[in-house]
Write a structure and sequence with these properties.
Blueprint lengths: L3 H20 L4 H6 L1 H22 L3 H14 L3 H13 L3 H14 L7 H55 L5 H26 L6 H22 L14
Helix pairs in contact: 1-3, 1-5, 3-4, 4-5, 5-6, 6-7
Amino acid sequence: MRSLIRSRRSEPRALSLALALALGTPSLAVAAEDPAVAAAEDAAREKFSEGNLAYDLGEFDRALKAFSEAYRLKPLPAFLFNIAQCHRQLNNPSRAAFFYRRYLALSQGEPANADVARELSAEMETQARVQEEQRRERERFARDRELQKAREQAALAEARANEAKLAVSPSAAPEQNGASQALAMQAPEASVQTEAGASKPLTRRWYFWAGVGAAALLTGGAVWAATAPGPRDTTLGTVGR
C-alpha cells in the first residue's frame, strides 16, 4: 500500500491534472451547437483555477466556494474530491467524509486515487465521531454547571429568606433564645428570695437573738461582780493580836 503521507503530498497536483483533463478545451462543434454549455464550461474552468490558487495559498474557505461553484456549473466528480479536501483542511470531518464518499460513488469506474479517498474518508469518519463525543461532553459539562449554579442560587435565596425571618421575628430561632428564656425564668426566683429575705422581721433573724444573748451574758457578769462578798484573808495572824 502506498504511504498515506506520500499520497497526500501528490493529491493537489494529481487532482488538478485530472480536472484539467476533464474540463479540457471545448470543441468547436459543442460551442456551435450549445453556446450555453460552452459558457458554463468556461466559467467552471475559471472557478477551478481560482479554487486551485486559493487552496495553494491556504485560503480554504475561498477554495471551497470556488470548487462548489465550479461543480454547479459542470458537475464533475473530481470537483467533489477537491471540496472534500477543503472541508478536511477546515476541520469539518463529517462533511469531508461525505464528499469523499460521493466522489467515489459518482466517479465512472474506480479513480486513480480511490485508495487515498477511502483512507481519507475513514480518517474523517473517525475524527467526526471524536468531535461528536467532545461536543456531547461539553454539553453535559455545561448542563452540570448550570445545575450546580441553580442549586447555589437556591441555597443563597433560602439563606437570605431565613435571615429576613430572623430580622422580623427573633422568636423564630428557639435555640438562640432558649438560654435567655431560661435565665429569665431563673431571675424572678432569685429576686423573690431576695425580697423575701429583705421583708423578714428583725426579731425573726438569727443574728438579732445572738446579739441579745451576748448582751445578757455581759450584764449578768457585771451584776455578780458588784454584789459578791469580799475575798477571805488567807494570811496567818500576828502573835499578840
